[in-house]
Amino acid sequence: MLRMKNISKIYRTELVETHALSDVNFTVEEGEFIAVTGPSGSGKTTFLNITGLLESFEQGSYELDGEDVSTLGDKQLSRLRNEKIGFIFQGFNLISDLNLYDNIEVPLIFRGLSAQARKKRIEDSLELVGLGGRASHFPAQLSGGQQQRVAIARALAGQPRFLLADEPTGNLDTMMARQVMDLLEEINRQGTTLLMVTHDNELAQRAHRNIQILDGQLRDINKNELVELIS
Amino acid sequence: MSLKHILKIIVKHRNISLMILIQIAIAVTIVGNASFISYGTLKNWLIPSHLDEYEILNVYTKVFDNQVDKSALIQRDLSNLSALPEVTQVTYASNELVLATVSGSNQVYKTTDQEEAGIENAQFDITSEGVATLGLTITQGRDFYPNEFVFAGSDQSRFASVAMISEALAKSLFGEQSALGQTVYLQRARLPYRVVGVYANKMLGESAVYEQHWYHSTIVPQAHFGNTDINYLLRVKKGTAEAILKDVEDTLYQQGGRIVERVEFAARAKKRLWDGRSTFAFIMIGISVIAVAVTTFGIIGLVSFSVSIRKKDIGILRALGASQSTVLKTLLIENALLAMAGILLGSFAALWLNNYFVTHLRAQGLVEPWLAVLVAISVWLLSAVAVYIPVRKAAKIAPARVTKT
Fold first, then answer.
1. Which CATH class is domain A2-229?
2. Looking at this predicted complex, what is its ipTM?
3. Which residues on chain A are in Cβ contact (under 8 Å) with B334?
């Protein structure tokens, strides 16, 4: 469902050129759970941004759910982000001025869903993450773990083809992190493709497939290598 | 985002929203009033005077020597001025000059009832050539008979018994009824005068014009002397050069015991009449320009600030599927709502200020509905342009902002 060929990304300043990604080839099949790990500055965020259509790339081709994204304009890319991808960020990225209901509703409005359809999806998704009765609360009234569950609910309400999680437990304590990971695994079991970027190798172990990114290059690693990396 | 979300965000950011709203309201208040006053002044300029502005002269003199026989002086002046080759008619004018109210209250009343409010009126007290000097065209009734003229010292309490009034005054006082034979009561003393003639409208009185009774005037065949003012109205031949002003002055100086304060064409008096109001209008226009500039930069600044503290939220919207045009549209709607509220508030403030100017400063700037709508649309467009600059920048916020830590 996702195919990248020879993707490169270079950041240029007046003095230096930084090759954030070099010749990345990467494929994801439907229903997979993939963890991408790597140290700070390895290119994880750039990889995530390009995968999530948040940032453009210089070279190569990228096909998402059968659609070549390299030639698309802002409007089409925005539509694809809205319809195909569910985002879960380390910092939750909820809009603090809006309550939970509105936070989940906004991307559904971009989709053009009716008020009735939106209401059902919002209520169902909040129920799924265990926050059914708190639709009128504001993000600031929730704990970090609860906020991340709202972000997951927002992503799920859009019924995306795949979920992109960026350090989803990075700001959570162990207990909360476990709950959030359990929820993500459950969602993946139900058929949603999951790509998780993390620097936490222990979390990465829970994925079906592990990718390591180092100096802008990707490589598949097996569980044993991952265990070695942890130890 | 829906309107509901936009309104919620406006309420959440109420302080900055309120500042934008007030800024727009102030602009509407100032620009609105400047427009009303300027338009009122411009409209005044365009009202025809029907005067032969370069054929009528106002002459103002003052007698400082108490020993001078004023009656004899006036007779000599009339004779000397008539002798000037350019002068065709001359009249002593003991009350008003053309578009120059020299003495106080010139009200006209329909009755002697002390409760009746008078109507602002220009009252021309003249000698025998007065009607011709002013170039009046009698449309109803007759001219004065020679025996109806009264020429007396102001201490003698002798008054004429007849008067002529302008068509506009006749209509104000008597409506569709004929004014001929009716009695009008002039000045605070409410002295009675029978109307014997009605003449075509001319813009004659300064105070009357000031009160927007453009053509209200009365001609009375009486001329009183006694105080220090000895004034004349002259009619000169068409095309007479400005040199006549000096000739008149020189002629008057041949008689001692007096000073000649001013000799001017009626055109000059008319210009002076409008100048004061134009100055007020120009000041208001100046303030408007400043208000528009301050508002424009203020809106740019406030919206830039508002957007800068919401960069992350805008990035989130972009990541969740809002295109640049969606963000642009959302922020423009948000600010258009604020602009509309500001315009509404400013419109009420403008009406209040207009009422204050008209009642307290005698400004001419009555509210013109079409002008108010034009001002509202203009300020709305101005705010849209001012908002567009920072908002366009905001729409370009990259969705990748959400992954920045």
1. alpha beta
2. 0.90
3. none
